[in-house]
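Exercise: predict the fold of this chain.
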Amino acid sequence: MDSLPPYMRIIYQELLNIYDEMKQVLTEEAGKSERVYYAKNEMKRLATAYMKEIDWLNDGYIPKYDEYMTNALVTAAGMFYVTHSLIGMEELITKETIEWITNQPLINRPIYGRYC
């Protein structure tokens, strides 16, 4: 957090507070607190993918189609939203279900090369 500019520290700290609050609420609901880990992990993947795009821009680099699409699948934030929406679901969603989804099974991956 020390490497962030002051204005981003506030945002980052509030984001951590939100995840901590979610963890507290889910801890009260017996055995659901581990779901927050997956949400945080997707947030990290999303931030990393955004940083890659920033690096490309700053370097004047134009990625190849496959390279761009691989990153764009993350920056489109689909998995971020799916993972976060599953956190508060009742017993329908198990740890195994969230792990399966976050490991990007084939059904979750668009076939971006075929229709372009």
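Check your answer against the key: Residues 6-108 form one domain.
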